[in-house]
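[retry 2/3] 1,4-dihydroxy-2-naphthoate octaprenyltransferase: previous attempt timed out, resubmitting with same input.
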Amino acid sequence: MKQKCKIWLRAARPFSLTASIIPVTIGAIFAGKESKFQFTYYLISLLAAVLLQASVNMLNDYDDFTNKVDTKESGSSSGVIFENLLTPGDLSKGGRLILASGCMLGLFLAFKKGDFILLLGTIGALSGYFYTGKPLMLKYRGLGAPLVFIIFGPLMVLGGYFVQLQRISASVLLLSIPIGLLTTAILHANDIRDIYNDKKAGIKTISIIIGRTNSCYIYYGLISFSYIVVLGIAYCKVIPIGSSLCLITLPAALKNMNKLHMSNGSTSELATLDQETAKLQGQFGVILIISILSSYIR
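[retry 2/3] 1,4-dihydroxy-2-naphthoate octaprenyltransferase: success.
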């Protein structure tokens, strides 16, 4: 049983789950200055977001396998199918079950907190399912990166905030931008690494459409603008000035950008760039959360 749980956890790609944990937490914490923090509802919204992402990761693995986008040699999936740890059918059923569980939590939140949560949840669930699912297969049509930005930026940050306050604000929308950019960089790193295999499979990602060189520039831009936006909104007092401590993570960001620059198209050199970008997003997000919390103590 313990071994089975480890396999399913691997299929969920735990290294990437900061992509949902950080935005929901930031949205909820940012609302804490204006009302009493509702911890139980925060946990429910966090679990719903994590289940959504975990299900998308599993369904993405299944769809990429059945559409021959991922192969044993590509190494771009969780590997549970190719190592015969789970069958494609198991992964599909598990992903759908986890997605349904997340939707149930979303419906509960919508019942308690209002129709806006229902709207956000519906967009998130449909976008997640059709990310690689038929008939839309959005990722295969070059829409993966903008979709990830919307879901893991504005949608989840606004969701975490709305659950606490039942309203939205321009400030929280601005705050969602750097988080969305960094999370999009995780996917974009993955897409740059997989250009050869994705092109061979006949799908189109932004990296394939615009080419590797331009894709590298986009990665540099996603990372750089995350810092620029945070410094800008801190200067404008949308968030505490202490949020500029996110600059502590800049060496890691520069290391990732240099790794991409020096890779010269080598897939093996970029094997872990998505994981390292996820780590950067997590560190950046944690510092942002701590800085916002610290401002409440004064």
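[retry 2/3] 1,4-dihydroxy-2-naphthoate octaprenyltransferase: Residues 2-297 form a domain with the Farnesyl Diphosphate Synthase fold (CATH 1.10.600).
[retry 2/3] clearing retry counter.
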